[in-house]
Task: inverse folding
């Protein structure tokens, strides 16, 4: 057999040929926009380390979700910045807490035309900045935290969330939340588990966005995953699926494409990936310096996440990409 001369280049010749044979695609339907709402804010406030992203007021959030819906973005995920923080993070399950109020506003504005997700965690609400309550020895108390997560899930479901997304990496969090939702008649509320969430330095800009500083310069390495490990991520995912997760997530995305690919190979449930704050900010900063083409890099990275096997992506680029398509 003669060697197929120039075979691999033949199908790269024109844009239409490349479109025809392209494997992975990024569509507006694949995007979920993370949004921040700040209690008692009168105006949206820019976030220095996340150019183009703001802490919304109630009013500006409503406008933003309407715009996302009109652009065809299918989903959003909400994070709250409470006016007051305390040791237990009580603003997270207060029926009049910032996210619950915003969920009702959003639901009223968009009905079922946008999937409404709520991040379910305590770190934005605790004065020490950890994702759970602290034990007397200063560590995060797993089981005491689960009771509070159950209360947060109910508050979010009552306020109209379609999906609760637990991000605190406590063991057993999916089971605790599923049980609480089912007992209270919220069987239709789905769970998107942040299953494989790494203790990543790429969350830096997000902590500015939600005004979180971890007490005493601490970190989350006793509950988030060690980024030396990939197999452990599969164990986390299996556990969450067994506990009743409807969808699972890998986070961050670009540094964990291997984990996304392995999860995809094993899993038939929907798989999400979070292109996190640091991944966004790096592109924005380099683009602002003129060092690279930010639009092109964003598209390349987000498409790579799809190619690795994610079904949808949480990304601060959601609106920009939707506008460009
Ligand atoms: C925890 C949470 C974090 C992010 C999403 N949910 C922060 C953390 O674990 O420290 C990070 C998202 C991002 O960096 O864009 N509530």
Result:
């Amino acid at each position: 057999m003669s060697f197929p001369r120039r075979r691999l280049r033949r199908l790269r010749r024109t844009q239409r040929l490349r479109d025809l044979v392209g494997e992975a695609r990024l569509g507006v339907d694949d995007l979920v926009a993370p949004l921040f709402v700040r209690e008692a804010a009168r105006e949206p406030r820019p976030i220095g380390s996340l150019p183009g992203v703001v802490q919304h007021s109630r009013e500006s959030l409503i406008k933003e979700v309407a715009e996302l819906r009109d652009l065809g973005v299918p989903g959003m995920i909400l994070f709250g910045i409470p006016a007051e923080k305390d040791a237990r993070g009580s603003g997270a399950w207060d029926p009049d807490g910032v996210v619950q109020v915003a969920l009702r506003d959003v639901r009223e504005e968009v009905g079922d035309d946008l999937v409404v997700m709520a991040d379910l965690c305590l770190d934005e609400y605790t004065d020490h900045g950890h994702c759970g309550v602290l034990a007397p020895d200063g560590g995060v108390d797993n089981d005491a935290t689960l009771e509070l997560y159950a209360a947060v899930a109910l508050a979010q479901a009552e306020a109209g969330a379609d999906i609760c997304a637990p991000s605190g990496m406590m063991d057993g969090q999916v089971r605790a939340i599923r049980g609480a939702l089912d007992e209270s008649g919220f069987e239709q509320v789905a769970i998107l588990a942040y299953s494989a969430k790494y203790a990543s330095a790429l969350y830096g800009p997000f902590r500015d966005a939600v005004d979180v500083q971890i007490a005493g310069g601490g970190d989350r390495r006793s509950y988030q995953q060690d980024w030396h490990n990939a197999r452990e991520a599969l164990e986390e995912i299996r556990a969450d699926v067994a506990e009743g997760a409807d969808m699972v997530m890998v986070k961050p995305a670009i540094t964990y494409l291997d984990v996304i690919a392995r999860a995809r190979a094993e899993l038939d449930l929907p798989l999400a990936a979070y292109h996190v704050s640091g991944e966004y900010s790096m592109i924005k900063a380099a683009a602002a310096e003129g060092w690279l083409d930010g639009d092109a890099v964003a598209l390349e990275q987000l498409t790579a996440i799809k190619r690795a096997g994610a079904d949808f992506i949480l990304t601060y680029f959601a609106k920009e990409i939707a506008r460009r398509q």
